[in-house]
Prior knowledge:
Low-confidence stretches: 1-10, 404-442
Domain Response regulatory: 15-129
Shape: globular
CATH superfamily of the largest domain: P-loop containing nucleotide triphosphate hydrolases
Oligomer: single chain
Number of domains: 4
CATH architecture of the largest domain: 3-Layer(aba) Sandwich
Number of helices: 21
Radius of gyration: 30 Å
CATH class of the largest domain: Alpha Beta
Largest sheet: 5 strands, parallel
Strand content: 5-15%
Strand order of the largest sheet: 2-1-3-4-5
InterPro entries: AAA+_ATPase, AAA_lid_NorR, CheY-like_superfamily, Homeodomain-like_sf, HTH_Fis, P-loop_NTPase, Sig_transdc_resp-reg_receiver, Sigma_54_int
CATH topology of the largest domain: Rossmann fold
GO biological process, one term: regulation of DNA-templated transcription
Structural class: alpha/beta
Number of strands: 16
Organism: Plasticicumulans acidivorans
Keywords: ATP-binding, DNA-binding, Nucleotide-binding, Phosphoprotein, Transcription, Transcription regulation
Amino acid sequence: MSARAESLVANQQPRVLIVEDSRSMAEVYVGYLRREPCCVSVAGTGGEALALIEQETPNALLLDLNLPDMDGLSILEYIVTHALPICVVIISANDSITKVVDAMRAGAYDYLVKNQFDADRLRLTVRNALEHQRLDNLVATLRDGARERYCDFIGGSLPMQAVYHIIDCAAPSRATVFITGESGTGKEICAEAIHRRSKRATGPFIALNCAAIPRDLMESEIFGHVRGAFTGATSERRGAAALADGGTLFLDEVCEMSPELQTKLLRFVQSGSFQAVGSGRLEKVDVRFVCATNRDPRHEVEEGRFREDLFYRLHVIPLHLPPLRDREDDVLAIALHFLRAYAHEEGRAFRHFATDTEGVLLAYDWPGNVRELQNVVRNIVVLNDGEIVLPRMLPAPLNRLAPTTAVRTIPGNEDANRTSAHLGTVDDMPANDTLAHDASTWHIRPLELVERESIEEAIAACDGNIPRAAALLGISASTIYRKRQSWLDAERPH
């Protein structure tokens, strides 16, 4: 390989910087990583390490805490302060565990104890660090380029940013896209977005719901028929395959198709040719296929209900639409869109949701997804009026989730209890002598511990659904994710 080629390959590989003052130890680490797909460099002092970091930021850093010119923690502090995208792995002597704990709390990803790890352990740790850094960069990129709307989708959550990215990449190609997701997640909207973003956008978009058409008519709906092909066929009819020529054919609920028709569809997908029912003439069209199902297509194949060869023909680019309950705060943006649209349509004054109402919307599981949310908002607008949607306006079953105020009583202090019931929390009460006197009899626990227990209990009560737990606690889901990560980081050395 030429020097220029080697340089190009090195620039494409992730970079690992080893900060180690012992030259012999550094050479050992370099030897361990020699066959890894990464570019390794070495710094013998803290000053040299900072210079290399400023020159070209590495993806991962193996950092010895005991350096001749500075404390390794200073380098970690520099990285954290400047928000540099570097995954730091601490390498420390066995007697420096206290500094390791400090480093983990300060933001280090992992740690290794000198003379207690072999080549395999170092390679695995570096691989994990590089993957962690890659995923962090991906999340940051998606967040920075977040789109609140995309074609007819509404929502800026991270799961939807991933969906938008896949559509952007897949749409320009001819590859078949296979969309999965629960009912009501917007599979047809997704198919239309793929069509609108493709080079076929000016061509037809033909959608066919395989579950809504009787099986004996399905072949005619797809391929058309000639006059007299069957009883009632009084004239020739073009099917979806011919109508989609030059455009996109969307087969919704494709797993509902009969085995006989799956065979004919496979032939059509492979050759682009088909025969109308009752015709002996072969027709050829230029069609891009997009399919969807609310089932698990692999399970359907395993159960023998869906042809394996057809599955692999259609399942080229899989795209999963997340359920509404996993889309963070998207539910509020979608609900507000429907509220204003239906209020305009019905001549109502609605413009916003009350805070308590938003809490209920976030706490609900939405088994019917966006379609159910759409129906709920339509119900509210048709049966009520006003500028703000109040909890009492919510239909069943959401009206059973109306928020209640948690009240903590204080023995022997009825005035404080009445105040607490009015304000919703003892912390909002004005201080008084009785409260101060009784406080000595309370079992007071650290606020940080109480907060953690409350969050973990809420997550458990919501069966692991963090967005729902966040809504019930009155905080954002991102706050819970951040706090859980900080707890994990603090416990990792132990």
